[in-house]
Amino acid sequence: xxxxxxxxxxxxxxxxxxxxxxxxxxxxxxxxxxxxxxxxxxxxxxxxxxxxxxxxxxxxxxxxxxxxxxxxxxxxxxxxxxxxxxxxxxxxxxxxxxxxxxxxxxxxxxxxxxxxxxxxxxxxxxxxxxxxxxxxxxxxxxxxxxxxxxxxxxxxxxxxxxxxxxxxxxxxxxxxxxxxxxxxxxxxxxxxxxxxxxxxxxxxxxxxxxxxxxxxxxxxxxxxxxxxxxxxxxxxxxxxxxxxxxxxxxxxxxxxxxxxxxxxxxxxxxxxxxxxxxxxxxxxxxxxxxxxxxxxxxxxxxxxxxxxxxxxxxxxxxxxxxxxxxxxxxxxxxxxxxxxxxxxxxxxxxxxxxxxxxxxxxxxxxxxxxxxxxxxxxxxxxxxxxxxxxxxxxxxxxxxxxxxxxxxxxxxxxxxxxxxxxxxxxxxxxxxxxxxxxxxxxxxxxxx
Length: 448
Prior knowledge:
The protein has helices spanning 17-27, 63-66, 75-87, 98-111, 124-139, 156-159, 195-211, 237-248, 302-305, 320-335, 338-357, 387-399, 424-444; strands at residues 42-46, 49-52, 57-60, 116-121, 143-147, 176-180, 218-221, 251-255, 282-285, 296-301, 363-369, 372-377, 402-403, 405-407, 413-416.
């Protein structure tokens, strides 16, 4: 049998998007989500911009789901990949790897976890899966505390600690998961409370939960919920939780897959907004550190990391190529103070979007910090989340040359997360396009 595949121009020119979409549907799962009524094939990028197969240029405010952290086609990263690939592509963890050790040393020092050990994976899902394995083995318990509205990945165990029904395809799980309040500040039974009273109520809920069970292994929590719509608790909530957890010997896993590496601007890690009782016991990371390459991992203090009593390796975790790329990316991030840029430019972008939203009935809230911004949309004149409005804005923004994402419990939140090198001019341009898209959506919106 001969293959029907034929090589084509790297730009994708001349290949209709509709044809590629039909081929996609014929061989890939129905549940593999595509954005847009007419899905886009992105063929190349540079800086904060990408191009599709038809030659259209877009300002990228989503970065491959918060993954293109520094810039598209960053020269330092592409050079590091090419140079390492020219030496050796793969070895596995059965052999010593200088790039892996170099990166592990850097991340251990940056993590804030004392006596830290680092294990590399190929994704955030796998990182969280490993953290759950470590915590349950260390504590000899399969009970996990997770946050309502949470998302931690696509694996069987990660789905088992996901508190968002839209991303939880099965109720089967190797874990017994108990969900606590705290991840969503602006909705739910405690929304009307002050920050201090909100924290007290969530701590009381946690303590009540723990009175009804025994031997919980860990709490896993995103400092800012990503897929959940960029929601977050008041600063210090997880520090207050930590005080309770420590009394019971329960571990704290901070899921930094989306919040890590300075994206929030104020902090390098999301957990640092909750540092009153020290760092987490385990920290997971992925996405941005690889700038598009498959890099993830877990940082844990040595006694937790070393608790496994069986042999283990990682065939692709810690690959020489991805480690070289991540080292170059991290050097660029730190050398150009992209965390500071996220704080400054992100603050400007949030301010512009809040000014736009103040005059629109479909905008309930503009929230976030740094370059991790959520815009929650509702049916005008109500507090009802409007996934339809979000769909309209995402499409209208794309038509005007801007790519954004969406999320939230019902899909009614715009997710805005550009590369951390975003310039002031690009922030102003993106805010202007979003303003047009929001106004267009408000004009087009009408109750069903």
